[in-house]
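S1.2 Input.
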Amino acid sequence: MKQDHIRNFAIIAHIDHGKSTLADRLLEMTGTVTKREMHEQLLDSNPIERERGITIKLAPVRMQWQGYTLNLIDTPGHVDFGYEVSRSLAACEGALLVVDATQGVQAQTLANLHQARLHNLTIIPVLNKIDMPHARIEETREELRGLGFTDDEMIEISAKTGKNVDAVLTAVVEKIPSPSGNPDAPLRALIFSSIYDTHRGVVIFVRIVDGSIDFDPVLRINCMATNSDIAPIELGTFAPAMTRVERLDAGEVGYIATGLKDVKLARVGDTVTYGNMAGTKHEALVPSREPLAGYKEPQSMVFLGLFPLSADEYQDSREAMEKLQLSDSAFTFRPVSSLALGNGFHCGFLGLLHAEVVQERILREFDLTMLATSPSVEYRVTLKTGVDYHKLGFTQNHIVSEANNQARLLTPERSDGGQVTVAIQSATELPDPTYVEKVEEPMMQVAIYSPKRFVGSIMQLAIEKRGEYVDLVYVGDQAQFTYLIPLSEMIVDFFDRLKSVTEGYASLDYEFFDWAVAKVVKVDILVNKEKVDAFSFLVLEAAAVQRSREIVDRLAAVIPKQQFEIPIQAAIGGSVIARADVKGFRKDVIQKLYGGDRTRKDKLLKKQKKGKARMKMVGRVEIPQSAFFEVLKRNS
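S1.3 Output.
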């Protein structure tokens, strides 16, 4: 296929601005999908995407239009899935920037525009939803002019009705450049996504940058980062279903079914070239020596524990996690053990929405209900000079240092003047305060966009969340805030409260800024003077008492009564900072007495008191699963 007749482009926008609807219209107008096969959100194949009305995973599709091959990649809009957008843009030469004419430029509009410009893409601004009665077309045009676009570049459409969508296709062909790869060079293909198929193994989505690949049973390809040779079992394109082809040329987007069972051998961001074919008819094909620029590994921002409700489901849960990781490279997990909850997994996510989606997939796809602990973030703990981190249970993998805001491994010999900094992701990992020099928490640079009438409410919320004011700019009726806010304050209810105080009009985007020193303490929860590790949490020292009271009161309400009184305590080290009691059952032992003097009653009451004291010493409190659900659920 001639490269000058190929156009690779993505659709980028803020959440709910109409990306998936525009993709549906493009599929219809190009005849890629018949009207009988057409339904809303066609490229959102996951049921969770359909129900929530959001795109979670990028979706490529090939279309034909007036002799041109158009490779479209639909991208997510939610901030939690920004890593999917960056991977999509690396496979394209252009992008459609869709802006909702009723809302104007929003947080993710700017974030995605910034990413697209970093990739040097040709950007076509598209004003969507112009058919809506409250569309602000002129105001939205003015906002786009402020971003450097001219009126001639803007295209006004209604993706819902199809009005003027043909102008978008014309602009894609005329304005977006064709791929610039060398078709005669050795094969180089960029892996920009992957899925797992039961029959075909790991299926990698690739953009052929240089050279070409023909399907042949004796052909071998090589993933350069892992140096693993693979015999492909199928080549194909997306139409939008996977469609088998015999050849992929330079500039094309397609897939290669590898037959692999281990996704680690074909990682996203790797470069595919020719493998070792000595002794075959393809031995003249020379592999490339220079890999393509890959992607930054997505860094987990939110961590929580997932525990199966039954010990019998542990192995099934582990297999489910491994299969999910094949299709979601940003999801990480490692086995952990809890005295209270048994064996489970410590999992890392990009945000709370990402965590919710993974839990929902585990339930739907594998029929497993997992108990989730309270979410936490990663903290940096600098140990005092001379402290042996091995004795505290840390390994070499825990050690980090700052170098351009990126974590890097240190050797014990070079540990910044004898002090070692370790990364912790749960309360159980925080060492005793006597070993700790300082604790640092991640700070996020947050951009908030809202109508200016909500400025006061947003500033009040930011103050409550320990936000540090940076900037406030007015653009027409819109206010654009910039704050530095600790990630630990954002992961629970910040987004919900922001939507509440702004009547749903605000949007936000955030990215990691830096590490800041914080007075963080570990609070242990003791039930009948026994520590329950599943309830331990890290909290800012100033908020420790209030948070502890909430937890012990909630526990006291859900733990069943016993024959003896149960003290529930919250403690920092050896100091108890909050307490609540579950009163014991009280049997009326003197009810049967119908006469006699007072000494008979006192004797029975004294005997009962001794029995309760003995039970309190030897009795064990079994905390029911419902109590863990009630206390650990994030929306409590």
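S1.4 Remarks. The longest helix spans residues 598-618.
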